[in-house]
Amino acid sequence: MTPAQHAFALGIAALRAPDINLWSLWEGPALLGCVALKSFGDGTGEVKSMRTDPAHLRRGVAARLLDHVIAVARARGWRSLNLETGTDPSFAPAWALYRRFGFVDCPPYGDYAESDHNRYMTLALAAA
Question: Structure pTM?
Answer without folding.
Answer: 0.88
